Amino acid sequence: TDFESKVRRLFFDLKKRWGNVPFEVVNDGEVTALAGSMSMGANAVLGLAMGTSEAVGYVTPEGNITPWLNELAFAPVDYREDAPADEWSGDLGCGVQYFSQQAVARLVPLAGIELPADMPFPEQLVEVQKCMADGDERAVKIYSTIGTYLGYSIAHYAEFYTIRKMLLLGRVTSGEGGSIIIEKANEVLAAEFPELAEKIEIVTPNEKDKRHGQAVAAASLPSVRQNDFGQ
Fold first, then answer.
1. Which of 19, 122, 123, 214 has the most Cβ atoms closer than 10 angstroms to its Cβ?
2. CA distance 197 to 186
3. Could you tell me which residues are beta bridge partners of residue 166?
């Protein structure tokens, strides 16, 4: 079949065509978590990026990335019967509805901010960030709510992952709104899950790591051997 002949070994074929250049294929979430782990000198890192979706990666306590995908965008964090449905899978309460641009757009009308219903999610986020920069309490409520979501979800994720560092990034966390998210998440952990609050630190990357950390981490993954280049 075409899948067997052209798709299954696609990346092996690319490596061969490119002169056996060292080549690894890894989910971007895993590379982000690895970059955070390398920059902090710490393991047991769960990286979560709030952007178009919820991108997640994990570095184990031993300092390794996992051989499986940690696509928590489609894992539930809200088990209510009336939780919002994911438009792709139809599943209820998935993380993407709580930690992404979709989360912001879903909370906009509830916070009392009036925006056109057909305005794309990225543009709605920009408007909320403008409100936040102006000190609008309605925007504060949105970020505070996302932070509350995060605090409870970290505790839920900790049932499946050993977490020492929670690496938070993505455009939703930009600016003062990101600080509110972290502050509220820490409040929830301290009040509801004090044993986890003592073990888990929520961190954000510095500007250097935001710009170059992922590339450095990705470059560290392939093993380079002399015969990779025909030497």
1. 214
2. 7
3. 46, 202
Rg (CA), the chain: 20
Token digits of residue 130: 């403008």
- Comparing 202 with 19, the larger pLDDT belongs to 202
Please identify which residue in the block is written with the tokens 């798709």. Answer: 7
Q: Is the confidence at residue 187, as pLDDT, over 50?
A: yes
Mean pLDDT over residues 27-31, rounded? 80
Could you give the domains of the chain? Answer: 29-229 (3.30.420.40)
> Average per-residue pLDDT in the chain?
88
CA angle 211, 215, 218 (to 5 degrees): 150
Distances in Å between the Cα of 110 and the Cα atoms of 33, 76, 87, 139 are 33, 22, 20, 11
SS3 state at 58: strand
- Measured at the alpha carbon of residue 36, what is the angle toward residues 199 and 225, in degrees to the nearest 5? 130
Cross-strand partners of 57: 47
Nearest 5°: CA angle at 214, between 67 and 164? 65
The pTM of this model reads: 0.85
